[in-house]
UniProtKB/TrEMBL annotation:
It is an enzyme of class 6 (ligase). Belongs to the class-I aminoacyl-tRNA synthetase family. GO terms for molecular function: ligase activity. Gene3D superfamilies: HUPs. NCBIfam families: PRK05710.1-4. Residues 7-279 form the Glutamyl/glutaminyl-tRNA synthetase class Ib catalytic domain. Its EC number is 6.1.1.-. It comes from Methylobacterium aerolatum. This is Glutamyl-Q tRNA(Asp) synthetase. InterPro entries: aa-tRNA-synth_I_CS, Glu/Gln-tRNA-synth, Glu/Gln-tRNA-synth_Ib_cat-dom, GluQ/Sye, Rossmann-like_a/b/a_fold. Keywords: Aminoacyl-tRNA synthetase, ATP-binding, Ligase, Metal-binding, Nucleotide-binding, Protein biosynthesis, Zinc. It comes from the Bacteria.
């Protein structure tokens, strides 16, 4: 992969950054320095309910306190919905997506009869709306009936194997990983409330920003198979990938905003220094 290496740190502004975020931000910046490249900041705020401007400001402040600086302008996903809608519509026009009108309760009930879980542990969608008559589906969409857009995995994945290059944390030691997107079933690529999903927007943005190396947590490793499939379908390049360890609490659980893991701002208020943060994370 020629040209200057580009990495990115891409937090969601739905809470305060904690040590797990600090670890990911720091190793991205460190690797960019070792490779002679740059690291971008991206604000992944496609969730209109949980994303808050105050959290975005706090993210910027926490990263500056850690000593991290990023090129301007910073990409903010909520400002690029038209781009995601265009990508989605292109896939739909090729017959690779279909609208799904099922509620979460209906999906759980249907999935109970045909058990199966995706890599995140959620019930696999049983394909209830896949066979809807196109005219009926179009009419329901035109009426404004709430729906997501799902990838028709049977049509989207090819028989020939494909995958991506994974690299060690120091930027070397590459190995080929065969993708297994079928494990996700007919994944959602466009939500009810916005014309995209994490999966669609992240592959689009990585291409737009020229990202060559993606460094993120192991909790997203399985999603990479789905991402490289979307890259193939959209004609986008695939970066190299590295999935780092997850920072855990004293009980061995992954740090998470949902569990109110101590934020960097809290540690800063207690007198913890950025140097101490690095030492605590083994960096």
């Amino acid at each position: 992969m020629g040209g200057r290496p580009v990495l990115r740190f891409a937090p969601s502004p739905n809470g305060r950054l904690h040590l797990g975020h600090a670890y990911s931000a720091l190793i991205n910046a460190d690797l960019a320095g070792r490779l002679g490249g740059l690291c971008r900041l991206r604000i992944e705020d496609i969730d209109p309910v949980r994303s808050k401007p105050a959290f975005t400001a706090a993210i910027v402040a926490d990263l500056a306190w850690l000593g991290l600086r990023y090129p301007e302008p910073v990409r903010v996903q909520s400002r690029h919905m038209a781009e995601y809608r265009s990508a989605r519509d292109g896939l739909a026009a090729r017959g690779l997506l279909y609208p799904c009108f099922c509620s979460r309760g209906a999906i759980r009930a249907a999935a109970a009869e045909a058990p199966g879980r995706d890599p995140d542990g959620a019930p696999l969608y049983p394909g209830t709306c896949r066979g809807l008559d196109p005219a009926e589906a179009a009419e329901r969409c035109a009426r404004g009936e709430p729906h997501t857009w799902r990838l028709d995995m049977g049509r989207a994945r090819t028989r020939d194997p494909f995958g991506y290059w994974a690299f060690d944390g120091d930027g070397a030691g590459e190995r080929w990983v065969e993708a297994e997107p079928a494990l996700w079933g007919d994944a959602v690529v466009s939500r009810r409330d916005v014309p995209t999903s994490y999966h669609l927007s992240v592959v689009h943005d990585d291409a737009v920003e020229g990202v060559t190396h993606v460094v993120r947590g192991k909790d997203l490793e399985a999603a990479t198979s789905l991402h490289v499939l979307l890259q193939r379908l959209l004609g986008l390049p695939s970066p190299r990938y590295h999935h780092h360890r997850l920072v855990q609490d004293e009980e061995g659980r992954k740090l998470a905003k949902s569990r109110e893991s101590p934020g960097l701002a809290t540690l800063r208020d207690l007198g913890v220094t950025p140097e101490a943060i690095r030492a605590r994370l083994g960096l």
